[in-house]
Amino acid sequence: MRQLLSISMDGPNVNLKLADLLQTEHSELFGAHLVNGSCGLHTLHNALKAGFTMWQMDKLLRALHYLFHNVPARREDFTALTGSTSFPLPFCGHRWIENVPVAERAIQVWPLIMLYVDAVKKKKKLPNPSTASFDTIEEAHADPLMIAKLQFFLAISRTFSIFLTNYQTDEPVLPFFGKDLNELLKNFHSIMPGKTRWL
To answer: Could you count the other beta carbons within 10 Å of the beta carbon of residue 64?
Structure first.
């Protein structure tokens, strides 16, 4: 406890009573105050979430997974139609940066999903699932930029992911933080030229 320097929380209003009691006890026992702050990892996850909420990326990625999750008959229809046994992965809503494999799989199966949607709606070869997940996918099917949006989400997620992985460690990496943060911002500038001047 004497070597404790800080306490971090998922958000600014999480476990305030615990933080207050710990601060008081630590101050009485050791005469030192702790540095309080929100979890930096959640800040990054929430930043990515804020950037893609407008496109409802989470809604689509969830729908892709839930359309086939625990529905063997639908999975069988999909495999019979496409010849693929590769299905969308589950989306994690509170760790957005860790959804890189989810986005990669979504891009991989997207053309097959479109075949499935066409077989249901246009050709009437397969039964209509009549679920909210299918409605979401059908709506995305009508968006000609959907694959570009998925690719863009993947590019940004990968850039964040490298930075996040490097700083989830017990090693003394703080001296490299400024240089790596600068590199992260340069990467964003190369992805979105002219859009990161405010950074």
So the answer is: 25
